[in-house]
Model the fold of this input.
Amino acid sequence: MIITKTREELKLMHESAQIVSKTLGMIAKEIKPGITSLHLDKLAEEFIRDHGAIPGFLGLYDFPNTLCISPNAQVVHGIPNNKPLQEGDVLSVDCGAVKNQYYGDHAYTFEVGEVDEKVKKLIRVTKESLYKGIAQFREGNRVGDVGYAIQKYTEQHGYGVVRELVGHGLGKTMHEDPQIPNYGKRGRGKKFIEGMTIAIEPMINMGTKRIKQLPDGWTILTSDGKPSIHFEHDVALVDGMPRLLSTFDYVHEALGISTEEEDQYRLDISNL
Done:
């Protein structure tokens, strides 16, 4: 069952999402060779709690940490550890926070030092595919329209689209209906309606779409050991159009990136 949100609920969800956005911006300043993912995890937990929220992942389904940190061939759900980051790594950082009972949940993939050009392209295309998907999240469209847009854009570059892991509805629980695959057929699936809130999160592999899981019960890897990239935004359907609850602005500011990619999807909280 799809749970739509009132304008007041969207304001609360925006607040939760923005805490995650700020956490990712803080993390962006700390990522460099020699830093451990466990150090980043501790910083994130402290930051989230200092902002009046609680970590959304810690203890969820018994996950042991605040962040899912997934380097290189890890797709998602990587467990932070004490292994230092290396020059040339790519690092997916997925973060969640809960405030006023509502979840924020989004992710960004970071470069550690100087990264191979082929990996840079995979990062760029995956991020661009996120906005291709967001553009299809509008009243009257269906789940398959989002998945089709992401799949078409990434597969035309020869990349693999993970099938077993998908985006999802978001609200008072981390995973609400509907599931939002990163593949699909146009005009198929549940119809988007006013007040929906979802997390769109392409997980795109340089090689095969196939994945495997480590014995830790969490970490997902590409089957061929090639890199995987993950980006995620929280999006609401407001007046029939997609509006971002989350933002990468804090990450971009930390990294010195100038982009207009979010401009057409910004949510004007004052008009809610």
Observations:
- The two ends are 24 Å apart (CA to CA).
- The CA atoms of residues 199 and 234 lie 5 Å apart.
- The first helix runs from residue 7 to 30.
- The mean pLDDT is 98.
